[in-house]
Amino acid sequence: MFDLVIRNGHVATASDVFDADIGIRNGRIVQIGERLEPGIEEIDATGHFVLPGGIDSHVHLAQNSGDGIVMADDFETGTRSALYGGNTCVMPFCLQAKGQSLREALTAYHALADGNCFTDVSFHMIISDPSSSVLGQELPALVADGYSSFKVFMTYEGLRLNDAEIISTMDVARRTGARVMVHCENEDAIRYLIGLHEASGNVRPLAHATTRPVAVEREATHRALSLAEIVDIPVVIVHVSNGAAIDEIRAARRRGRMVIAETCPQYLMLTADDLDGMDWEGAKFVCSPPPRDRKEQEACWTGLQTGAFELFSSDHCPFRYDDPAGKLNAKGRQSFRHVPNGIPGVETRLPILFSEGVMKGRIDLAQFVALTSTNHAKAYGLTHKGRIAIGMDADIAIWDPQIRRIIRHADLHDGADYSPYEGTEIRGWPVSVVLGGRIMLKDGLLRGRKGDGQYRKRSTARS
Ligand code: DUC
Ligand code: ZN
Ligand code: ZN
């Protein structure tokens, strides 16, 4: 007898698509085959797709945003929204404040997350203060403890690292096998352009995109790739928005470098024109790097189709729009510079790629699974996740490809007050989600509880 059987589904992995029953016991997949014996519980997946639960390796939850700005999702609302969007694991960032020890930062994030999650979670560190004790002792100890990835920023005053700091932080990855993620935008170039625009009174949201042009991202991508080459480590280039940055990544790979590249829904679905809304509505689309134009959208689609990208993540970074703690904060209407960067999207990531990618024939189901789950587990050392195979965690999303839905924020479950994809027509939606063998969502109805999601340690490429 199984604990749970998912019967008659159209099962997809990153390599194969086949019809089968899945037998689950003690939270793991223990059998895949035809006409399995009964389970204590059963899900009839006839006519549905049975996929590994989504892993979103780039989300921001309850992250301190300074200046009275409050992120719209905590771990409860953010992971609940992720679950409704077909995810079983998310990877938020743990931000080190300047002068703060990494342990202290982690203790605070664990206090917020533990017992509150509807999906599994695992943290990437953000290194804002690469002191000698952080790089010499703390970070290597954390990597050994299962916090095996960290992000560095080339932009944002107070967060950006200079090249020397990036090199010495990358060197920790060389010594430990950790993954380094890089936010590639040149802060000095952005400062220069912001100065020009503000001086001429051009302060509306569209200027956010104009002051962060493709060249700003291309130059920083080239530099990050070069620094990783010099230190001799693989590197993750996150939230790639355009063809020139993709070309840099391809060129580094031709030189024999291992580069993992990520893009996000906003670079397929939005353009800078969306930032040009009347009455500051454009603030709803302010994120970094900014959305570009149709040509760059096509470049990102081609990148997804041809293997330039391994990862498709949401970069869910939610702020409320009409809220003193959100996009239109006290200074938010004075200049685009004060609009917090980031948009919600953890619940819509998978439906968007399923509908625009799989249902429109741009990618196949196996590519979808690789881009949204399997590759995330591989890239970041989430063992037992991201695959439907015997011995893996029973983290599974069941999709109904017949569903047609219009994205309305009112139907979503995050803590923001809008969706950047409002009105988008979607074909296919996840209806049931199983986490570690437990049915969390059944036919669109929540069955799981907060606290069912667990914190997950990760391995490095070497451990
Ligand atoms: N970078 C991110 O990764 N997310 C949101 C904002 C940002 O600049
Ligand atoms: Zn970033
Ligand atoms: Zn992000």
Textual characterization of the structure:
This protein is an alpha/beta fold and 463 residues long. It folds into two domains: 2-51 and 386-446, Urease, subunit C, domain 1 (Roll), CATH 2.30.40.10; 53-358, TIM Barrel (Alpha-Beta Barrel), CATH 3.20.20.140. The protein has helices at residues 75-84, 102-113, 132-144, 163-176, 187-199, 206-210, 214-231, 243-254, 266-269, 294-306, 349-359, 365-380, and strands at 2-12, 17-25, 28-33, 39-44, 49-52, 54-59, 87-95, 120-121, 124-126, 149-153, 179-183, 235-237, 259-263, 311-312, 396-406, 425-435, 438-442, 445-446. Helix 7 packs parallel to helix 8 (243-254). The protein is globular, with a radius of gyration of 21 Å. The mean pLDDT is 97. Bound molecules: dihydropyrimidine-2,4(1H,3H)-dione and zinc ion (2 copies). One zinc ion is lined by residues 183, 238-239.
